[in-house]
Amino acid sequence: MIGIYVQILLIILFWNADCQIIPRIEECGLSCSQGIHCKSKPSGGIFNSFCHDAPASLSLVLKSMKISTVMKCVQGSPCSLHLNIKGTLSLDENVRGLEICSFSLDTQQSQCTNVRFTGKKSKMLNGKKVQVQFNCFEVNVAQHIYVTMKTVPHYCEVKLSQQYYVEDCRNSDVGKYIPACSAGKLDYNLDRARKTVTVNVSNFPRDQDYYVRLCHKWFTCEDVGAFAVIKGKESFKSVSLKYSQLLPCLCIEGWLALPDARRIQLCPFENDTQVLWDNTVYNPLTQTLAWEPACPVLVMVNLCRFTKSNDHCEDIENSFKNSPEKQVKYSRVDTHPRLCMKFTTKRGSWIKCPFAHGEFPAWKMRTAAVAEQIQVFFTSQTKAQFSVLVCNRTQMASCESLGMHHSVSVGDSVSIPMSWEMCGSTICIQGWRTDVDYSVPLQVCDTYCGFHGQSYSDGNPAKAMTHRMKSVQSLH
Q: For residue 10, what pLDDT band results from cuts at 50, 70 and 90?
């Protein structure tokens, strides 16, 4: 329960950080406590880099320092971010003023200013607490800043320092009003013959460089090749990027060449999912059929038996797998041409038959009506075990067993006794492989039953028998 409260607190803190309103100013400047006159001027920070030993009479001068961000907005000009530095110190006759510096850990650039207290000095002011506020250091979005406050002259070990992170574009106020957070606008033209995407960029600061790349969008957008740079000083704001395959997760991403700049994505091929189903691989050594999505997709995968009669694919039981991202594997799979994979999404279903082109050995089942029996035998280029039964096909995808199973190997045959009640258009001989986990059940239906009740006077059934062979290749 405590963990839940901690998570809620963190969410509130992050939400407040992103939604925090940045205070506005129209002019930057320096201010000191009422009754204390002060002025500032830029400083290189060099002359105050060496320290002196503090006099024995010097008490604790620098009390505290607080840093925040303010936004300077002037009508007709874009807004900018500034550090708002507040310091508290006690006046001392040995201190003439302060030096405040900011150093960017990102760009290695520094800004310094000297603050001097003016007017007549009086020992009566010694020990008086003074508030100093300075907000003229302009900073960039998401900068990592190191701020120092020293006395003038600089006494050794008399210094305050603090690290500070400027808000980034995730802050709604910064993202809305700071030009550096403008992600721009992307348009594209597609050349399928050359496999290139020409990206046009608009609505971004003209003095800033802009990055563009192609990426595959998973949890994050993963690189597809190198990114391109559009120079801010160039008038031509477009670039061509090459791709290898148009996938539904292929996106165009653009952002300003600034630390932690906001990025914009354009994913125009999200509906082109059909290309995803081609990525099936069969390993003949392990008899494993695998499919791995090149893009994240919510899909139901299953195996099915393709029927030539109506271009229908009957689902194979216990083969359904739901996979948005991970690889789907089927072990010990029959390589029959009619064993297919079905992919179902909210946009429809697609059938892929990886063995349909005859690249892998297939087996055949044939039947022959001999006397009052049906003889069933199998042919295959590889060793295989099969099972056979008589069934009543009540529906397209189901065939109810009417007797016991018969096992048979390649090269052997099995004879199934037939009775008059077992003859009919829905009665089928069904066979399938038993030495694999996933096999296509094949059926020979409408078995010839005209031999029932006939007698042969010469006692030689070979002369009188009706011999009719059916190959499953030409049936359902």
A: very low
